[in-house]
Amino acid sequence: MMEVVLVLNAGSSSIKFAVYLAATSVGNPLIRGKIDGIGRAPTFRARNAEGGDLEAGNLAALDISNDHRELTDRLLTWLESHDQGNKVIAVGHRVVHGGRYFRVPVLVNEDILRKLSELISLAPLHQPNNLEPIKTLLKRNPTLPQVACFDTSFHRTQPRISELFALPRTLTDEGIIRYGFHGLSYQYIANAMSPHLGEQAGGRVVVAHLGNGASLCAMKERRSVATSMGFTALDGLVMGSRCGTLDPGVVLYLMQDRAMNAEQIQHLLYHESGLLGVSGISNNMQVLLQSTQPEAKEAVDLFCYRAASELAALIVPLEGLDAIVFTAGIGENSAEVRRRICAHLKWLGVELDMAANQANKPVISTSTSKIAIAVIPTDEERVIADATRTILFDKTG
Ligand code: ADP
Hints:
Mean pLDDT: 92
CATH topology of the largest domain: Nucleotidyltransferase, domain 5
Number of helices: 17
Bound molecules: adenosine-5'-diphosphate
Helix content: 25-40%
CATH superfamily of the largest domain: ATPase, nucleotide binding domain
Largest sheet: 7 strands, mixed
Number of strands: 12
CATH architecture of the largest domain: 2-Layer Sandwich
Strand order of the largest sheet: 4-3-2-1-5-7-6
Radius of gyration: 21 Å
Shape: globular
Number of domains: 2
Order of helices and strands: EEEEHEEHHEHHHHEEEHHHHHHEHHHEH
């Protein structure tokens, strides 16, 4: 029997999970999988360490439901029946918002869970789903150590000027600041850049995490100095169904002249905007790239234009630019989106190697490009596993 660490990454419409050996950070997870499409048409997939299918699309294996709480419970039961005789000695969770209290990963207890629940209004799409598996596990196995790892933590190295809104100081003092998100992904990329970028990895780098949620992080010496997301995960880039940066006057107009209430506006900005809103077709980049509709083309054009514009804005805090790294679903897989974003940045001396880009190679810039460009698959689960091991072994001596 081996001791293992379970990682749960519960998003708005998916739950990713992975099982790692507790004793070593080397090697693939023993099991890795994902329940996707929760709320719509859920699918379930699980693979072993060699990448072989354990349950390809076998929904019956999980008796799948559309309820996060039930799904978590069934997933835990499924994992127990596939534990290969191993013992889970700790569970690491992705938690989107750590607010002002939590700057590093933390061992969860009832008091900490209460504090994390207070942050739900700052991340209404994600935080409740992140906390659900923690609560379920506390009930199932109250003595099992659980570690919360935060998407906001990586950005706490930012200078105060990057965190400030131009609002009255009292509001800043009360915590209305730019927190930034996708920090677990950025942490992974910060550690993984060197083999591809060499010395430039320690220089001035913008990492573009382009998935359903999308953001940019400006890193100097592998530390966050600025990011495109702010107080909530709504700010910055155009996303699957989120609007990104918006004149706050639009919100006031919708309230005052269109008599929309907070709940309706929240739904509009989180679920009906972004690629979905502009195209009127889909939140899925792959679908839009294949569409011949002009609205689909406009949505993709806006996505790329805004990503490049926000990237250029991060050159101020970085005082220059040595490298760009693309990651997450769109960043890792879409040569077309990378090509279009880089075309907007040609004036900076960005030169793409078209063949390398098309082949999703790790380095996609030409040898004469002033700025190196890399494609690095992210791995948030690995970062959570490492943090969980660290806390666990620190605590137990
Ligand atoms: P999440 O934020 O939910 O984890 P992902 O990082 O999985 O999202 O990214 C999902 C996005 O990646 C979707 O818009 C999807 O269309 C896009 N994507 C995945 N593969 C491709 C591809 N080959 N070409 C274009 N877009 C892709």
